[in-house]
Amino acid sequence: MHTLPATHLEVAAWLRLSLAPGLKPAALRVLLTAFGLPEAILQQDHETLAAVAGDAAARATLAPASPEFDAQLGAVIAWRELPGNHLVTLDDPAYPPALLTMPDPPPLLYIKGRLDLLHTRAVALVGSRSATPQGMEDAERFARTLSTAGVTVVSGLAQGIDGAAHRGGLEGAGSTVAVIGTGADLVYPAAHHALARQIAVQGAILSEWPLGTPARAANFPQRNRLIAGLVSGVLIVEAAMRSGSLITARLANEMGRDIFALPGSIHAPLSRGCHRMLKQGAKLVETPEEVLEELGFSKAAPAVAGAGREKASTQASLVTAAGSAAMGSAQREESTQAAAGEGTFNVVGSPGPDAARLLAALGYSPTPLEILATRTEMDYAVLQTTLLQLELAGHVSALPGGRYTRASHG
Fold first, then answer.
1. CATH fold for the domain made of 345-406
2. Residue 410's pLDDT band (boundaries 50, 70, 90)?
3. pTM assigned to the model
4. Which CATH number is 114-322 given?
């Protein structure tokens, strides 16, 4: 989809209104409906604007631009001229149609990558930053299957489930969209630099925040509302009881989107948020095909997708290899913290980091020895010794068929 870039004057007007403190997107939408383009709004007097959108909106609209405005405008125009970067305004045909169904769509979107992905059928996959290895595998597998069916996978580029969802999405024809809570010129977390570069080439990165906006906790719930707005349904893979994923699900539900959740063990802390959503009416799903069926999406990928998928897979392996060292250590550290901090069982009296890493890799599902070896990257002898110690300490149970599971305490 190609549209002529707005003139610098148009960009200046859009940017000024998008940055105006106190001018809410819903009020700006009312003004745009009444007067057309931002330049026309800025030419009105206070009384005319107040009669349409209220006194507060009129004051915010006509407040003088900040002293930094010229520098901000220059930075936006320079950013837009870089290959793959797009500045998409509310009146642009490239604007995601799903966001127009929201009461308060952002006036300006900063997008890196493929604009066509914002006009496709899409599903969000969200979940915990401190995901278990099983949760990561589930997220990547569900995302890969959805993307292979031509569905765009949307997530928030966070550690854990989000990262796994993006990696899975990149492997299929549907690809992936990352909705971020910082300026589009920044990557957060830093461990996802390689992943973000890959998404910017094969998928799309979308932000409503001004360039240079750092990661702030308050921005992420607002980011979540855009994730909810872009999609037909939201799948929660793992979530604690107090989780940003549940905010995304609630916002999506309010917008009439479908909510899905993966069930888990009653002993797993990261199943509790999913189970809470299921109690509140989310649909329980066990396979990605169920999500496709519920949303009325066909399972077959578009005919043109085959070559792209093969290419995507090759590119994915190249970029993933480049980023794997940084990513792997961060994920292992988060998983270990999750096991030590959030787990039901403590690894007291067991031999330190090996046991904690093994418990984190075990998750809450019966797991074969070879999968534990892959997840932990432990030597087989060390792995079996550690398993035996955990078994003797009452933390792990051996099952038939060479599988292991966490022991159920009460």
1. Arc Repressor Mutant, subunit A (1.10.10)
2. very low
3. 0.74
4. 3.40.50.450
